[in-house]
Amino acid sequence: MGFFDKIKAGLTKTRDALGSTLGSVFSGFSQIDDDFYDELEESLILADLGVDTSVKAVERLRKTIREQHLKTPEEAKEALKNILVDMLDVGDTQLNMTSSPAVVLVIGVNGVGKTTTIGKLAARFVSEGKKVLLVAGDTFRAAAADQLEIWAGRSGADIVRQHEGADPASVVFDGIQAAKARAVDVILVDTAGRLHNKQNLMNELNKISRIVERELPNASREVLLVLDGTTGQNGLIQAKQFKEIAGVTAIALTKLDGTAKGGIVIAVADSLQIPVKFVGVGEQVDDLMPFEARSFVEALL
């Protein structure tokens, strides 16, 4: 099953919700007038694009319709698809893996599916023939390292961990030394997700970054923020805070199959100008998928 089919199946709830709102906008109007634009804007907000992104999308649509002399709601729908794809185009959707080892710091609040996302990424990279090392840097949550160890066994990746409460930066240091010794291709680092304790988290992530910089100065690096798609606009607020404290370079949106508001993907990319690189649409190991904007929008609408 390809990305389009999987994403289409995963976004069933979103599409059903949009079908009754957006669908009725495009089918319920015979002409494009102010009522059409008002209804469309309201539907996009309900789909979790957020007010700012929805207003921006509708303004751009008005301009396109005017410039291209579009007449029917069906033509407007195709134009809207192109606008949404363009809003998602805020950077490379591939992870930067140009060095060996490449380092991916994975951040996000507890409960968003961070450890599971790391496990699924590990399985993906191992299936591509890469040697993967998981680093259990979330030492404050008792179950985190155990959960990561299960994923290491399941995916065929190596793991470096220490005792509960250990200094996360020292675990990362050990992980990097192990990666050098074992000729690892990808280091995936799990980090703590205590956003309510922002200063501590910032200090911790800075310390980890300095160690990576010192020990692997030429390594390609990504800071991958994992967001729970079902939390909608709250997820967007989290993302803004993490962007401030951690220099996020990529986003993975999980649990999109469990929400009727998949438009959050567009809101996140547009508001933060950070590319969405993975989306999770199910429980299976291959249900974390590299993101494709055009297929996503087609499946959404």
In total, the number of strands is: 8
Helix and strand composition category = alpha/beta
Q: What is the helix/strand order? A: HHHHHEHEHEHEHEHEHEEH
**Helix content percent band:** 55-70%
Q: So what's the overall shape?
A: elongated
Describe the largest sheet: 8 strands, mixed
Beta percentage is 5-15%
Task: Describe this entry's structure for a reader.
- With 301 residues, the protein is an alpha/beta fold.
- 55% of the residues lie in helices and 13% in strands.
- The protein contains twelve helices and eight strands.
- It has an eight-stranded mixed beta sheet with strand order 3-2-4-1-5-6-7-8, sandwiched between helices.
- Strand 7 (276-280) and strand 8 (288-290) form a beta hairpin.
- Helix 1 (3-10) packs across helix 12, helix 2 packs antiparallel against helix 3 (34-49) and helix 8 (168-182) packs parallel to helix 9 (198-215).
- It is elongated and about 65 Å long.
- The two termini are 19 Å apart.
- The mean pLDDT is 88.
Tags for this entry?
single chain, 301 residues, alpha/beta, eight-stranded mixed beta sheet, 12 helices, elongated
Indicate the topology.
Blueprint: H1 3-10, H2 12-28, H3 34-49, H4 51-68, H5 73-88, E1 102-107, H6 114-127, E2 132-136, H7 142-155, E3 158-160, H8 168-182, E4 186-190, H9 198-215, E5 221-228, H10 233-246, E6 250-254, H11 264-272, E7 276-280, E8 288-290, H12 293-300
Parallel strand pairs: 1-4, 1-5, 2-3, 2-4, 5-6, 6-7
Antiparallel strand pairs: 7-8
Helix pairs in contact: 1-12, 2-3, 3-4, 4-5, 5-12, 6-7, 8-9, 10-11
